[in-house]
Amino acid sequence: METVTLLQERIRSAKSNASSIIDASNLDRLLAQLVEQPVVKDGTAEEIFPSDDRKDEAGFLFRQVSGRQQVAALTEIFKAQAGSKERWPFDIWLDRAFDHHSTIIEVKREGDELPAGFAVIATRLEVEGKTDADSQSTIALRVDLNSVYVTSERRGEGHSQALSWAIGKQVDRILYALAEAPASSRQSFKEHKVEIFIEGEAHSEGGANFLAGTVEQIESNMDFINLEKAWFDVPAVMDDVDYDKFARLAELRR
Fold first, then answer.
1. Phi and psi (nearest 5°) for 253?
2. Across-strand partners of 140?
3. Are 131 and 189 contacting, i.e. CB atoms less than 8 angstroms apart?
4. Residue pair 71/95 in contact by the 8 Å Cβ criterion
5. How far apart are CA 103 and CA 54, in angstroms?
């Protein structure tokens, strides 16, 4: 009985301290957890191509690839499909994504047996600016669009656009999770502002289209996301993508 009572007192004490002690490291841990949202499982053609003539086509299925075994299996699938003519180092991209704990999103059409491509993204939430109780701070959601790949025979069928849509959903899920974070975890800041920073580098026309399309998708989502009860306003979207020589193409795309 004494042990139970002592435990209960410790729990009450911990709860009391949680509401009175400012601990930035606790907030950092919370932000790291919030970005670990599950990848959307599927999307209809009507959702992904709302203003296109593809609404009646089959939808898309998405899967988060995790673990060395799944990454190796996906690499072998693409090697078998690509043959010796593929110039894009998808195997290196997948290995690097696994080593850096990035998110790998696999895509295929409904009814297809094998995946047609993937995108690699890295998301993180960071507190920027002053962290004292009387200063405004910015919580930055950084979305690094590391790479995208679609097998040569499936290019032009909408898989890249579907991946942009899935990444947009991923950003939405992170924002909803952030909106539901307990007040005690963010009480050290008097005011909060959330901003989205999208990063990436274009190495081809297709890559530039994917990057610009993903930025456009996330920007569009901010027009419809429901954050009325959130403790922050709808975030501004900052396009920090390096389009390089494809900058004009990206401007035309958007």
1. -65, -35
2. 126, 195
3. yes
4. yes
5. 28
Cβ–Cβ contacts within 10 Å for residue 147, how many?
23
DSSP letter (8 states) at residue 131: -
Whole-angstrom Cα distance, residue 35 to residue 38? 9
Taking the C-alpha atoms of residue 193 and residue 33, their distance in angstroms, rounded to an integer, is: 19
Q: Which of 55-69, 180-194, 197-211, 236-250 bottoms out in mean pLDDT, i.e. has the lowest? A: 180-194
Q: Is the pTM of this model over 0.70?
A: yes
Pairing of the two strands 136-150 and 191-201: parallel
Residue type (1 letter), 230 = A
- Give the list of residues 6+ apart from residue 79 with CB closer than 8 angstroms, or none: 91
Q: For the stretch 161-181, what's the b/e string if a residue is b when 16 or more beta carbons lie within 10 angstroms of its beta carbon? A: bbbbbbbbbbbbbbbebbbeb
Instruction: Tell me the average pLDDT across 13-30.
Output: 51
**Pair type for strands 42-43 and 103-109:** unpaired
The three-state secondary structure class of 229 is: coil
Closest-CA residue to 185 (of 8, 29, 9, 13): 29
Give φ, ψ of 11 to 5 degrees. Answer: -65, -45
CB 106 within 8 A of CB 65: yes
Q: What is the pLDDT of residue 245?
A: 77
Q: Please, which residues have CB within 8 angstroms of residue 226's CB and are 6 or more apart in sequence?
A: none
3-state secondary structure of 238: strand
Is 58 or 83 the better-scoring residue by pLDDT?
58
Name the token pair of 134. 């009387």
Per-residue model confidence as pLDDT tens digits over 65-120: 999 999 999 999 999 988 777 889 999 999 999 999 999 999 999 999 999 999 99
Confidence (pLDDT) at 31: 86
